[in-house]
Amino acid sequence: MKETIRFGGRFVVEDSDPELVVTPEDFTDEQRMMAEAAQQFMEVELAPRDADIEALNYDLTVELMRKAGDLGLLGADVPEAYGGLGLDKVSTTILAETLSRSSSFALSVGAHTGIGTLPIVFFGTPAQKQAYLPLLASGERIAAYCLTEPASGSDALGAKTTARLSPSGKHYILNGSKLYITNAGFADLFIVYAKIDGEYFTAFIVEKGMPGFSIGPEEHKMGIKGSSTCPLYFEDVAVPVENVLGEVGKGHQIAFNILNIGRFKLGAACLGSSKETIELASTYANTRKQFGRAISSYPLIGAKLADMNIRTYVLESMVYRTAGWIDAMLRWAESDDGMGAAKAISEYAIECSIVKVFASETLDFIADEGVQIHGGYGYIREYKVERIYRDSRINRIFEGTNEINRMLIPGTLMKKALKGELPLLRKARALQAELVQPMPLPSFEKPLSKEAFRVGQAKKTFLAVGGLAVQKLGMRLEQEQEVLCSLADLMIEIFAMESALLRTQKIVKASGVSDKTEHVIHMTTVFVQEAMERVESLAKLALTALEQGDGLQMQLSVLKKLMRAPLSDTVSLKRMIAARIIRSEHYIV
Which of 163, 232, 333, 439 has the fewest beta carbons closer than 10 A? Predict the structure, then answer.
């Protein structure tokens, strides 16, 4: 990969061209057909067996995963040379989104195809790929990813599982345990992390049945009940040296980059569940009557449906924008080894964390509103919205907690800036002179011109607050988690606003302003206005932690200038958005 290609995190300092952003409107016929095939598989094979899957029937889950493998649904990320389809990340993201409606089964598939298989795809030797990938693509072997331990979750490098080279030099002897391992009850292949000699963090391919390797009992979980979650135990497990994955002591490069992909794919799954919840809630709202009319006719119910659809539109824009970027970087790394792929994936670590946080919190919001619209029925297990509500809660913990991801977002940005990969500090310094000058408002005659202006003002706000934080705290900034969290949330709001704006600009440029495009313009207008209210609140929180007295008043006056813009009537806009959803009874763009 060319070292000059560094784009991750640039959205906070540079504007993007809408034509260069990948959106769902760009999907090919082949990609849409693939989504339809996955949908048909769920309807024919999964829906009739839903209760048995949720009852955690190992044999049935494995049988269905093998059927999915026969259809190519497990090999989308596996190169064609090893029995897979070798699809791009946009295509595999579509699959992850579509399959998300199958609840726990989707998690089993996602853990297998993503964090279970991708370590070998990206970091395996030719021999390892030839031995394992065809079996993983077909579903003959099921994979699991084993990082978390009883004493180390977010602190992955604090792992206690050890490995030592045997006297013969032919095996590594593993001792320790892992916790909360998805697919553990029926997996055949385990990607296990251990420290060689208690020091060198390394990945291993461990096979079921190796002497000394045992699987503990199923955990009893709040949600995702149809997925297997068990502890693992290693007592002098002899793993052939040929099963070291990647380089000795470089396991963190595999672990963290696979987690980046896992975070991003989790966002796609949350997107699919969000769409399903909108469908369930809008359909129910049209059939449920109170005081002589359907509850969908009441404005407060309509406002909920509008908010659900708006946030889903924004999330969808973020997910496929990021997928397109990852595809582009992986093409640069195509001729490189696994480390080249690692660099390509890590380039968008910030965006993967942003998608994970926004997606998991969006689905929690939408699931909660879905239950509320259902009223008491939403609390009853017979209604799927109850399951979606329970299942969604784990997403803020999976793949690194949202708190850890919030620390990573600005932390990674600062590291890129200090390495000269981003002109962050230079832009922040240049902004200081601009902020003390008069800032007259431009005209907002063209569609979305106000929203584009406000996204630019949000970026200036981030630079102003971030620059002050660096100036005041220096290296102590990483210890001030509340300020870091505010900076992370500012970045999340900016990426969300800009992703929706760019997509809508692209749609309007292609189709012009019409009744159809009016819907996406309305959604973007509402989201940007409400997001800017959050931006102002976050900035105030950080500024009051960084300044006091006259200095604080000066900063707040600058912030007030940055927040100026005419307001839109979001109540009326949401009523129009809701009317479209109520008529269609599903997520609508």
Answer: 439
Report how far Cα 256 is from the mean position of its chain's Cα atoms.
14
Judged by DSSP in three states, 291 sits in: coil
- Domains of the chain in start order, with CATH, are 24-142 (1.10.540.10), 145-245 (2.40.110.10), 254-404 (1.20.140.10), 422-584 (1.20.140.10)
pLDDT means over runs of 10, the chain (589 residues): 59 94 97 96 97 97 98 96 95 97 97 96 96 98 96 83 98 98 98 97 98 98 97 98 97 92 96 98 98 98 98 98 92 66 85 98 98 98 98 96 97 92 90 86 94 98 96 92 98 98 97 91 98 98 97 96 96 98 98
Q: What tokens appear for 511 in the block? A: 């189709």
213 CB-near residues (< 8 Å, 6+ apart): 174, 206, 232, 233, 234, 235, 237
* 382 tagged catalytic: no
Instruction: Quickly list H helices, 2-103.
Output: 29-41, 50-54, 58-70, 89-99
CA distance 111 to 191: 11
- What's the token pair of residue 414? 């600062």
Distances (CA, A) of 551 to 135, 388, 428, 544: 63, 47, 18, 10
Of 184, 360, 178, 179, which is closest to residue 267 (Cα–Cα)? 360
Determine contact, residues 251/203, Cβ cutoff 8 Å: yes
Is 315 in contact with 354 (CB distance < 8 Å)? no
Query: Which is the catalytic residue, given 361, 399, 498, 585?
Result: 399
Alpha helices in 163-294 (DSSP H): 251-287
